[in-house]
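Table S2 (text version). Query chain:
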Amino acid sequence: MEWKVVYYSEQSGSMPVKAYIESISIREQAKTMAFIGLLEEKGPNLPRPYADLLEDGIHELRRKIMFFKDHLNEKFKDPKFKKIYEEEKYLLELGLAITEAREKMGLSQRELAQKSQVTQQQISKIENGINCNMLTFIKVSSALGLDLTLSAY
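Corresponding structure-token output:
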């Protein structure tokens, strides 16, 4: 069986994994790509210490390990990053609340869009944490029967 490693691509078309690999030294690029090559060659049969089975058939490529929280705390030393992170996290939390309320009501994005008098694309953007104008957010929240409350945080 042939295995393929696929790099995640963002909406903008950028590929964070590729960008990361290209940002490190040429030796580390070669080593990282050799690891990925082994993964593509062996698939789920690549043993420890090179890869590990997590759950549901998901494998991780074992390379230099850094925990997310450690990385995040490192990035939080930059006040500008921390502010932007908190804004983006809040947008994602609002989007998640909208998604959960819509699903609880048994509505599709298209049905919610009709009920809110906005486009399905606007619903998708909100649910994906993409900034929208306040009127759109108010229309969608109102259609879901959600109360908007502002408080200092």
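Notes on Table S2: Residues 70-143 form a domain with the 434 Repressor (Amino-terminal Domain) fold (CATH 1.10.260.40). The chain has two domains: 16-65, 70-143.
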